[in-house]
Write a structure and sequence with these properties.
The complex is a heterodimer of chains A (about 110) and B (about 140).
Chain A lengths: L4 H19 L4 H27 L5 H48 L1
Chain B lengths: L1 H21 L9 H20 L5 H23 L5 H11 L4 H12 L4 H24 L3
The chains are: A mainly alpha (about 110), B mainly alpha (about 140).
Chain lengths: ~110, ~140
């Protein structure tokens, strides 16, 4: 029987929402939204790896390793975004100080 | 008139001091060596992953050791730079025994050789991971 990807994603979404309800009683909506967004980001990889697992092109252990790669990618992407935001803030701050110095010196 | 000039000079120094304090960066500046190191490692890691379907782990051990040494050097270099903890953490993920890259090596060791599909997937994923390191370095102020 061929893998029903639509049904798989319905199951995954339900599980994620249930987990959010269990872990974040006061923030269920936010946690559910974060969880389903993550599912959406990983959708293509989950489909690809699930199909390859079903057709025995990869083993269950290899499937787990590839999903671990996605987990690492999410962590590394968050670090990249934090770094880029810090660099942008530094550049902005420098430009503001340049404006202050130039403007004050020009009017004095 | 002289007093006014002295005051203006003092004010200029004051402004420069404020600027120096205010402009203290919160993240390291761009580093050409770190960027070259990361792009070079990306190629080496992807090539290593692609080898895993044709060469046994034992036969590839010298290549694996070489790439791992380069990875360790990149981690140490980035860890030693001021205000560079984010990049160091990214390398830390690649070096962690519980994360993707080391788990791939463990699987390769246990399997002898990997399947072509898995090797291709690993190569793509490791490329995406290295792209994050490269993107961060490239986005730092120059």
């Amino acid at each position: 029987m061929a893998l029903d990807l639509n049904n798989l994603f319905i199951q995954l979404k339900t599980a994620v929402v249930n987990l959010a309800k269990e872990k974040f009683k006061d923030l269920v909506a936010e946690a559910s939204s974060d969880g389903t967004s993550l599912l959406h980001i990983l959708q293509d990889d989950i489909k690809k790896y699930s199909q390859e697992l079903e057709s025995n092109q990869i083993t269950p252990d290899q499937f787990k390793i590839l999903l671990l790669g996605d987990e690492d990618l999410v962590k590394m992407s968050a670090l990249t975004e934090a770094g880029l935001a810090a660099a942008a803030a530094d550049a902005f701050k420098k430009e503001v100080f340049d404006i202050i110095v130039n403007t004050v010196l020009a009017v004095i | 008139m002289k007093t006014l000039l002295i005051r203006k000079k003092q004010f200029t120094y004051f402004l420069l001091t404020i600027m120096l304090i205010g402009c203290k960066p919160t993240i390291a500046l761009y580093d050409q060596y770190a960027y070259t190191q990361a792009t070079s490692l990306k190629v080496d890691l992807q090539n290593l992953a692609m080898e895993s379907d044709s060469i046994s782990y034992n036969a590839a051990k010298p290549d694996i050791d070489k790439v791992n040494t380069e990875l360790q050097k990149a981690y140490e270099y980035n860890k030693g730079r001021n205000l560079n903890s984010l990049s160091a953490k990214q390398y830390g993920i690649l070096l962690s025994d519980n994360d993707f890259y080391k788990q791939f090596l463990n699987n390769w060791k246990a399997s002898g050789k990997e399947s072509e599909v898995f090797a291709q997937n690993v190569s793509e994923k490791i490329g995406q991971l290295m792209d994050q390191i490269i993107k961060l370095e490239n986005g730092k102020n120059k």
